[in-house]
Design a protein that fits this description.
alpha+beta, Ubiquitin-like (UB roll), 3 helices
Length: 97
């Protein structure tokens, strides 16, 4: 392996489908560079990097942050419903049962 390249994973998940793509990228690349090079944006056209948050191993990061060997870059979906609202609805449904 070229000393200038590092292995990273780019991951995105929907409730019914998850994808993780491993690729080699230049060691000075940004998170955005890795996402674009992975091809995941073509697989999931609903990803909007201007709105969707990204992170590395569950910690929020910026698109311009650099990558390191072994990083798992994650693209987070926008919440469809606030977690507190979802809990309230489940509680209402359970009390009705």
């Amino acid at each position: 392996m070229d000393a200038e390249l590092v292995d990273v994973d780019v991951a995105f998940a929907l409730s019914e489908r998850q994808t993780s793509i491993t690729l080699q990228i230049h060691c000075q690349a940004s998170i955005q560079d890795a996402i674009e090079k992975s091809g995941i944006l073509q697989l999931y056209p609903e990803i909007n990097l201007e709105q969707d948050a990204v992170g590395i191993f569950g910690k929020k990061a910026g698109l311009t942050d650099g990558v390191q060997a072994g990083d798992r870059i994650e693209i987070y979906r926008s919440l469809q419903q606030h977690p507190m609202q979802a809990r309230r609805q489940r509680a209402i449904q359970q009390s009705a049962d």
